UniProtKB/TrEMBL annotation:
It comes from marine sediment metagenome. Coiled coil: none annotated. Belongs to the SCO1/2 family. PANTHER family: ELECTRON TRANSPORT PROTIN SCO1/SENC FAMILY MEMBER, LINALOOL DEHYDRATASE_ISOMERASE DOMAIN-CONTAINING PROTEIN. Residues 53-218 form the Thioredoxin domain. PROSITE patterns: PROKAR_LIPOPROTEIN, THIOREDOXIN_2. This is Thioredoxin domain-containing protein. CDD domains: SCO. InterPro entries: SCO1/SenC (IPR003782), Thioredoxin-like_sf (IPR036249), Thioredoxin_domain (IPR013766). Keywords: Copper.
Length: 220
């Protein structure tokens, strides 16, 4: 009987130690993964294949108008890390989630002048500067950190598709008449290269985005 009890105790202890060791191993592996990631890849094509060597695709030159009536260009974001997205003010679907999560980023980095946000209206014929100003006030969008921009429809759609690769439907159909509606947040570095793409409606993706912003800050 004593031998049986001793054997049982030994087996239980072995299983416990084994599980504990496995948990510690997993924990150490996770820590190593996090600590070893010191650089983000580049995304140079619409299929978003990560490329680690160098960036070959920069966001093209642009010129839009923000909610304060100011001209916003690439120079506004030169040397800055920024997150870009696409929305419209009367959108009843995903846009409220996108705006809410952009607001979370604004709050997170409000003391960091090197992190900016850029939201393009995909309905510029409706979203005038005045309407963007009202929307900005309603959603506590603050300058100079977060720019809501409007402008020429063709220019906005072209940069969405050719610059940020933000329109998956266009990638598949090449139909220029399609309305752009994407949940993507695009992370751009201080040199104008795309360094990450995230679903802006998902909390887990938002955590990943914030982690990658910190990696990018340390990288540059």
């Amino acid at each position: 009987m004593n031998c049986s009890r001793t054997l049982l105790f030994t087996l239980i202890a072995s299983v416990f130690i084994s599980c504990t060791d496995q948990d510690k191993s997993k924990e150490k592996a996770a820590i190593l993964d996090n600590s070893e990631v010191t650089k983000l890849p580049y995304f140079n094509t619409p299929i978003f294949t990560p490329e680690w060597e160098k960036g070959t695709h920069k966001i093209p030159n642009f010129s839009f108008t923000n909610q304060n009536g100011e001209n916003i260009t690439n120079e506004t974001f030169e040397g800055k890390i920024y997150v870009a997205d696409f929305f419209f003010t009367i959108c009843p679907g995903i846009c409220p989630k996108l705006t809410k999560n952009m607001g979370i980023l604004q709050e997170e980095y409000k003391e960091d002048p090197d992190i900016l946000l850029l939201s393009h209206s995909v309905m510029p014929w409706n979203d005038t500067v005045e309407k963007l100003a009202v929307y900005a006030k309603e959603h506590e969008v603050h300058l100079p950190q977060w720019h809501l921009v409007t402008g020429d429809k063709d220019a906005i759609y072209k940069i969405a598709r050719d610059g940020y690769f933000a329109d998956e439907d266009f990638t598949n159909t090449q139909d220029i008449d399609n309305f752009i509606h994407t949940e993507n947040f695009i992370l751009v570095d201080g040199n104008g290269y795309i360094r990450g793409v995230y679903n802006g409606t998902l909390p887990l993706e938002m955590k990943r985005l914030k982690r990658h912003i910190e990696i990018l800050k340390n990288e540059i």
